[in-house]
Amino acid sequence: MLDPSHPIVELLKEDPRYTFDAYVFVFEALNYAQNVLEMGTEVPGGSESEESTPERHVTGQQLCEAIRAFAVDQFGYMAKDVLANWGVRGTGDFGEIVFNLIRIGQMRKTPEDSREDFADVYDFETAFRQDFKIRHPSRKKP
User: Fold this and answer.
1) What pLDDT is stored for residue 40 in this prediction?
2) Contact 104, 10 (CB under 8 A)
3) Which of 12, 89, 109, 135 has the most other CB atoms within 10 Å of its CB?
4) Is 140 helix (H, G, I), strand (E, B) or coil?
5) Distance between the two ends of the chain, CA-based, in angstroms?
6) For the whole prediction, is pTM greater than 0.85?
7) Residue 27, in any domain of the structure
8) 70 belongs to a structural domain
9) Would you say residue 105 lies in a domain?
10) What is the residue-wise DSSP string for 46-102?
């Protein structure tokens, strides 16, 4: 259960456009982008009180592409419907989610990052329906 004092609880009250699942999915997709797809460039991480470890910064466009791949991997042909059920209907919604998370201190950005990085990266109908390909589970993904 979500701790009532967690910043996301207040965020969900302030901005009800997206469900809790949408926020969790964006976090998971960021992890997928960095660790599975190896997207992003290394930037110094951590704070002065922590040992500095490099992290991978992913751009808005990269995150949108990773979200597409992760959604198809997780939900297949139903990805567009699942995202819509969470309030997400276009790539601009990913930017809104990310910048909400930045605002409450749950994600970070560089000075170059903006909401516009997420605008119209791809069309949902094309990305999740027209370009959908069924893959045999025993075959490796390209």
Assistant:
1) 84
2) yes
3) 12
4) coil
5) 37
6) no
7) yes
8) yes
9) yes
10) S-TTS----EEE--HHHHHHHHHHHHHHHHGGGHHHHHHHTT--SHHHHHHHHHHHH
Contact 65, 121 (CB under 8 A): yes
Split into its structural domains, the chain has a count of 1
pLDDT, residue 47, reads: 47
Q: Which one, of 6, 103, 113, lies nearest residue 62 by Cα?
A: 113
Chain Cα centroid distance, residue 115: 13
**Amino acid making up residue 16:** P
Is the dihedral angle over the CA atoms 23, 62, 84, 16 positive or is it negative?
Answer: positive
Query: pLDDT per residue over 60-98, tens digit each?
Result: 999 999 999 999 999 999 999 999 999 999 999 999 999
**Segments in the chain below pLDDT 70:** 1-2, 44-54, 135-142
Range of the domain at 93: 7-130
Cα distance between residue 123 and residue 118, in whole Å: 12
Please report whether residue 138 resides in a domain: no
